[in-house]
């Protein structure tokens, strides 16, 4: 008993007091900022592994970006990654960062479905489905609920059964072999329900976009309520994204 | 001699691999492994060569530090005798060859699909119709779990046959995570795309798989790495091992409902992965390892920081782990639960932790050393009982060992050597094999190039490819309620297996 108290005492306070304002330590590749500098555009476009960079004007699609940082390494005068981890939105095109943009990515409250605030504003239970995810976004979703990030403080939890869930969270590019299971799980979740995509693989297929082993037709059938970019998405990106979707008025 | 002996990370001409007929190929490879626990098959695969299938078998010898490569051309019209009938460790390799090319084995005991690969031979076989083993009995019942599990984990289907609470048999069906990675390695021509694929094979082993890919690629391009590059790789591999082992100790505590251990180990993982982010910008070390270059040179300032992190981490870890190992209620759940015998581990070709837990000395860091492991003089940690307790002990002691290696490495940081980072094109008509000991165990990548030096085939083998069967065997005769802790103590990869 005494040992247990000692351990608890030595742990001190672990929780991050405010996950919406805390700063991430060290290097972190968050929201990119693109300058108006002139560079060899063909070279810049060509180096990206997932064709996330397009021109006229130069822009980066965070739904496709793997956050590898290669563009910033080769063209530091053109692209830099800020430590801003608030990267999520309910609108796919808000993930596209244009030359000269330096404003936060946000959920657009006008296009959020009306029932989301009313029903999920204080409590949100989610069922996670890994559909070809490589276990990195899965780790970070788990970390979002550890004692440090403690997402449960906002009433947001992951549950075991879709029957108990208010929505599904998909990671991975959705493989052909998982396509049926994703559909069954979604159908088993009671209405109203939301769909959240976590990580570049889920949002665009990422590095797997060209694979013939994936089947993304599920996403053509239903509206996506939230995109949370990252490779993997950082727990702070996940928490802030979910809060932005369900709490902002 | 109808095989060629190579060293880890060596590139040879494809034509240097002697070709023999199937009879010889069969006899020789079986002969090499039978009765030789120091030898095991690290990769065995086929590829199309005209209308025929070329098979390549790679047997590693841990005593001589060599890998013995042999090859054979077969026609799929002819049924073959299976290696598996003699040696179970070839079981999955032959199933994969059967699944991908339609080669039929006359005496394979378990010729079932491996992962329903997208390029499989018989597209009429679909994952929903997997032929599970079943027993017709009034007393027994079946429990099916998955593909989606209760927690935030990857998908796979577990089918238990139980007698009351007791598990008689477990069959693990995988393939749900199949993304066609090996095909994408060929299709995507940019090096950065391939490096990105390598770190996505299993995101929890981003370092392990990307170091293996880097070694393959550098060897094919005849690139000599500098010590600072290998320094970063060794350090990153040990940090990855440390982080995951601590995380898995948390998982094991969760599964025995020990809340304090679960929370403390869970949060102790954070400073380690946060350090990886401080170093390379990503908590799971994606983007840290690149072929031909030291992407994020390890500076003395980072060394200082890491030392601080470990100085705080170590006493907190020790305090918690000592408590856990002194709790009778925890030990009684660990001991004699989920046992795999030494004989079984050898027969199925278990690797990494799943081998070392039952006194099979398999660790690429000492048997086929790479990066700076020559200098670290690594001695694998071995346990004898093959139970959950052995696996938990290995986690604990490997955490301590990793910390000592990391401390040793950062006491003498290799200075950054500026290089142009330009890699030549890979050698044409070549074969390269690379082995790395990731935290789960041995990772093996093989690459074949065509006459223009383009990748023709990229074969990936995650340690889980062998070790899933160890999990299935471990739960026999255990209560089904002990399945989670058995599973977590192995923590195998679905995506690494399914590719
Ligand atoms: S960081 Fe993103 S945009 Fe830049 S090269 Fe990598 S994937 Fe492309």
Describe the protein in words.
- The complex is a heterodimer of chains A (249) and B (499).
- Chain A is α/β, with parallel strands linked by helices.
- Chain A has one domain: Rossmann fold, CATH 3.40.50.
- Chain A has a 5-stranded parallel β-sheet, with helices on both faces. Chain A has a 3-stranded antiparallel β-sheet with strand order 2-3-5, with no helix packed on it.
- The termini of chain A are far apart.
- Chain B is an alpha+beta fold and 499 residues long.
- Chain B folds into 2 domains: 111 residues, NADH:ubiquinone oxidoreductase Nqo5 subunit (Beta Polymerase, domain 2, 2-Layer Sandwich); 318 residues, Cytochrome-c3 Hydrogenase, chain B.
- In chain B, strands 1, 3, 4, 5 and 6 form a 5-stranded mixed β-sheet that branches. A 4-stranded antiparallel β-sheet of chain B has the order 2-10-11-12.
- In chain B, helix 6 runs antiparallel to helix 14, helix 6 runs antiparallel to helix 16 and helix 7 runs antiparallel to helix 8.
- Chains A and B meet through helix 1, strand 6, helix 5 and helix 6 of A and helix 3, helix 4, helix 7, helix 8 and helix 17 of B.
- The structure holds iron/sulfur cluster.
- The site of iron/sulfur cluster has 14 residues of chain A, from helix 3.
List keywords for this structure.
heterodimer, A: 249 residues, alpha/beta, Rossmann fold, five-stranded parallel sheet, three-stranded antiparallel sheet, 9 helices, 10 strands, 29% helix, 15% strand, B: 499 residues, alpha+beta, Beta Polymerase, domain 2, Cytochrome-c3 Hydrogenase, chain B, 2 domains, five-stranded mixed sheet, four-stranded antiparallel sheet, 12 strands, globular, binds iron/sulfur cluster
